[in-house]
């Protein structure tokens, strides 16, 4: 993603509901990617 011009706002972080990664695309749009925890 870095080679495509993505700028990460912060390092990925763990939240109670899962993992979160936040970045801005080359056009300045902010995106949040969530990996939801599964109850096991």
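-> sequence recovered:
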């Amino acid at each position: 993603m870095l080679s495509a011009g993505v700028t990460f706002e912060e390092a990925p972080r763990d939240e109670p509901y899962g993992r979160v990664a936040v970045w801005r695309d080359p056009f300045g749009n902010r995106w949040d990617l969530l990996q939801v925890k599964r109850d096991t």
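The radius of gyration is 12 Å.
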